[in-house]
């Protein structure tokens, strides 16, 4: 049992980007916890000012290489609402497919490459033995399908070129869609196996939480109504009215509270509040796993991500097989003064964009609320609650447990790959 403990974790491993953690225990009690997102400020809300709205979605996709399609899509939605443009049904279908490609790729990278080593007691996939090599092959197969789906629909899997305000500039060919359907069907069994692995995982940390999510009728991560597990219902346009920005002096990221309290966004929230909207084939084949939701176990966020991969595959197959894509006239983009709000579900949770545009079509003001920033306060409080439960472990085990909890959230500070450096005092 540690009564006096000072831990500094620098560059927490197997997460997207840079974060450090400082923990202090005095007299067997936790006296200080600081989760420090240590990315340098990039000032995107300032950088977008005076930029032309027409080119803004491509600009903000550069905020994150991992979630670039999510930023592009959310910004495009905000721009269309500012300009009063209504996209066609086919354009919306393409957006769903491009988001599904993102979810497959992003979740696969996190679950296979960042989390599975924890489940198997390894530091990284490089240490997997021969019995686990097939999972590495499956990781790249599943991730590759997500990449290919995004390429066919959006032009590229990162910083996509085809999506535009009001339309998509290119229509996929029939042979391309037939090929990707075959690939999607080919990895489906791998994903079911992945779900089974996380369903059997015994990692557990439960704490009562308020889950917040954009609920959609077809689990498409796009338009819907924002709901919380406390029963609050919010229109997309009113989301900011329920948020409180919290300055965290030791972190480069701003935190947020919903209705004045900590909350959680992401896959666990989506499964807790919207699992009935999953694709029928997903619900049929994962019925046992779905019985585990709603859940207060933070580690079930990873199980939820695995389930979302299968949904993204199943709904993509249905949309690609049931629709014949054709060239269509693009809506006219008339520059005007206005304000638009976009809200979507990015891989790590609810993403919010508010854009104010002047009569010349340039940005006067923008407000972006990122999922990891919304989870930051709850992550830190979870760490504070976990530490007293693991003080009987040795230092290396304590460090691992703290990292595992943070990785369960799949936080995205920005793209990076680090090994852990620990300073003990």
Q: What report would you give on this structure?
A:
The chain has one domain (44-375): Cytochrome-c3 Hydrogenase, chain B (Orthogonal Bundle). The chain is 42% helix and 17% strand. It has helices at residues 44-47, 56-60, 68-83, 89-119, 133-154, 174-200, 267-274, 280-285, 287-290, 300-322, 371-390, 395-408, and strands at 5-10, 19-26, 29-37, 163-164, 167-168, 212-215, 225-228, 233-234, 243-246, 255-258, 338-346, 349-357, 363-369, 421-424. The strands form 5 sheets. It has a 4-stranded antiparallel sheet, with helices on one face. A 3-stranded antiparallel sheet has the order 6-7-8, with helices on one face. A 3-stranded antiparallel sheet has the order 11-12-13. A hairpin with a 2-residue loop joins strand 2 (19-26) and strand 3 (29-37). The two termini are 17 Å apart. Mean pLDDT is 91; it is low at 414-425.
Keywords:
12 helices; disordered C terminus; three-stranded antiparallel beta sheet; alpha+beta; Cytochrome-c3 Hydrogenase, chain B
Looking at the structure, what is the overall shape? globular
Name of the CATH architecture = Orthogonal Bundle
Largest sheet: 4 strands, antiparallel
Give the terminus-to-terminus CA distance.
17 Å
Helix share bin: 40-55%
The count of strands amounts to 14
Tally of helical runs: 12
> Within the largest sheet, what's the order of strands?
3-2-1-14
Q: And the CATH topology?
A: Cytochrome-c3 Hydrogenase, chain B
Strand content: 15-25%
Whole-number tally of structural domains? 1
According to CATH, the homologous superfamily is Cytochrome-c3 Hydrogenase, chain B
- Supply the CATH class: Mainly Alpha
Helical/strand content category: alpha+beta
Average pLDDT for all residues: 91
- The radius of gyration is 21 Å
Residue stretches low in confidence (pLDDT < 50, at least 5 long) are 414-425
């Amino acid at each position: 049992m540690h009564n006096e403990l000072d831990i500094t974790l620098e560059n927490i491993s197997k997460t997207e980007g840079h974060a450090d953690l400082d923990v202090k225990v005095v007299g067997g009690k936790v006296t200080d916890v600081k989760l420090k997102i240590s990315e340098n400020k990039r000032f995107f809300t300032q950088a977008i000012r005076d930029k032309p709205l027409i080119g803004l979605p491509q600009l903000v996709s550069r905020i994150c290489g991992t979630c670039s399609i999510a930023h592009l899509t959310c910004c495009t939605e905000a721009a269309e609402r500012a300009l009063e443009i209504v996209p066609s049904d086919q354009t919306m279908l393409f957006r769903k497919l491009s988001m599904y490609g993102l979810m497959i790729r992003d979740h696969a990278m996190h679950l296979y490459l960042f989390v599975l080593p924890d489940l198997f007691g390894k530091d990284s996939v490089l240490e997997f033995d021969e019995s686990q090599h097939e999972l590495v092959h499956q990781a790249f197969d599943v991730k590759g399908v997500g990449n290919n789906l995004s390429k066919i629909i959006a032009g590229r899997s990162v910083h996509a070129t085809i999506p535009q305000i009001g339309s998509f500039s290119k229509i996929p060919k029939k042979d391309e869609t037939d090929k990707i359907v075959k690939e999607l069907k080919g990895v489906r069994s791998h994903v079911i196996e992945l779900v089974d692995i996380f369903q059997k995982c015994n990692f557990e940390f439960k704490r009562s939480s308020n889950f917040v999510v954009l609920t959609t009728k077809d689990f498409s991560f796009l338009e819907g109504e924002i709901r919380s597990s406390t029963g609050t219902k919010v229109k997309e346009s009113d989301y900011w009215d329920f948020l409180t920005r919290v300055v965290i002096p030791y972190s480069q990221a701003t935190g947020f509270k919903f209705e004045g309290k900590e909350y959680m966004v992401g896959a666990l929230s989506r499964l807790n509040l919207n699992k009935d909207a999953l694709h029928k084939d997903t619900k049929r084949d994962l019925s046992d796993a779905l019985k585990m939701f709603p859940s207060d176990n933070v580690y079930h966020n990873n199980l939820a991500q695995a389930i979302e991969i299968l949904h993204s595959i199943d709904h993509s197959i249905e949309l690609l097989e049931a629709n014949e894509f054709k060239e269509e006239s693009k809506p006219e983009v008339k520059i005007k003064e206005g304000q638009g709000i976009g809200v979507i579900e990015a891989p790590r949770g609810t993403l919010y964009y508010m854009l104010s545009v002047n009569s010349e079509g340039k940005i006067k003001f923008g407000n972006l609320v990122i999922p990891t920033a919304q989870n930051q306060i709850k992550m830190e409080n979870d760490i504070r609650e976990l530490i007293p439960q693991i003080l009987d472990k040795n230092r290396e085990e304590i460090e691992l447990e703290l990292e595992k909890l943070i990785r369960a959230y799949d936080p995205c500070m920005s793209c990076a790959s680090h090994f852990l450096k620990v300073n003990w005092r």
